[in-house]
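call fold(seq) -> tokens
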Amino acid sequence: MKNIPIISYQHIRDRAESQSVSVAEFERQIAYLKKKGYEFLSLDEYVALKCNPKSLESNKQKYILILFEGGWRDFYTNAVPILKHYWAKAALFIATEWIDESSKQEQAKPKTIQDADLAHDEAMLALGENPRSVVCTWEELAQTKELISFGSMTHTYQLSNYVIKPWHEDLQLSSDLILQHLGVQTTHLLWPRGEYDATLLRTAKKMSFTAFYLKQEGLNLQDSVLEQNKYYPMSNGLVCLKKFLFICATSLRYKILRVFL
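ret:
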């Protein structure tokens, strides 16, 4: 069975931190994938391929799913123009409360420091006081629908300045807001910080989520199991992408070389 690789990004900006990939490096990585003939998948296309074992048996086409986490403003300002230039599909998982609060704020409050200069942890803190300065609005995300498919990262990310909701209410609200503002009935859920248990999984399935994603080592082989779609975070270097694609190309190669990831 073939593996369908999934890679992830949080910030696309010129800042030296583990959560960020520079704008130039991101473009190099997308250009490389395009040059090597990879087809960029939407979330639903990924599920359709993964659940159809026969679809890739004699198919030499290479596929990849690219995820973004959070809906940070640099996704809209830096990543989306590059994706459009290469006409590369990607997926965005959002904590809908962040986007909702950003959309309600008429404009970003004046700042003494530029958003691009905020460390990731500082940007997380800014969500409470000045969300529009650090994350996208619903209107901005709607403009990306040609190339971007959307999934939930829950409503509050269980990190709310408002009211922490029971999980079933949280997940339902997230799903409803994505449908209301983006016209998408998403069935895809990325677990915040990769934390979940059997009870949460059952709850999410009752909310009509069917495909689940977490940052974890492993392959996404073609089968009908969608409870643990594993993604690999990209770092600021093309060699990281090349190494990942080489090692994860086959099950045997992964078993032998996974220690080098």
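The mean pLDDT is 90.
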